[in-house]
Design brief:
The chain has helices spanning 11-23, 39-51, 66-77, 95-146, and strands at 2-3, 29-31, 57-59, 85-87. The protein is an alpha/beta fold.
Length: 147
């Protein structure tokens, strides 16, 4: 988790931060509330989100992302399959874009749930197959001992 609240945005520094976020493979929660992030900063962040595959929660409340930044974020979320929660209150993003972002996030959440269920079922089936193989080997050895 990284909390960067109310520190303000330095354009060059934020650009470098976004580059690092794009290649980060560990961070799961990022809180960037109240940092005066505008549509340009949101564009930089959107590019990073396209490449990031670990971030699960993003809080961007009380910035100044606006229409263009909202569109950039929406476009990036089409490629990002891991984000399950994005907070965007207080950013002057039109409601239709907010709804589209919410739908994309919900789709990601459903995808993650299905993936988790699939992994669980695969693990159960693998254990069952292993058990059946052991039983088959035991039966074969018993048969050979009988013969």
């Amino acid at each position: 988790t990284l909390e960067w609240n109310n520190l303000g945005m330095w354009e060059d520094g934020f650009s470098l931060f976004c580059e690092g976020l794009g290649s980060n493979h560990f961070l799961q929660q990022l809180d960037l509330r109240n940092n005066q992030i505008n549509h340009q900063g949101a564009g930089e962040l959107a590019m990073a989100l396209k490449r990031n595959s670990t971030l699960q929660e993003l809080d961007l409340r009380w910035n100044n992302i606006g229409l263009l930044g909202g569109r950039s974020l929406l476009n990036s979320l089409q490629n990002n399959k891991t984000l399950g929660k994005v907070e965007l209150s207080g950013n002057n993003i039109p409601s239709d874009i907010l709804r589209a972002i919410e739908q994309t996030i919900e789709h990601n959440h459903e995808r993650q749930s299905a993936l988790k269920e699939n992994r669980s079922r695969t693990q159960i089936l693998s254990k069952e197959v292993f058990s059946l193989k052991e039983e088959k080997s035991k039966q074969f050895l018993d048969l050979m001992a009988t013969i």
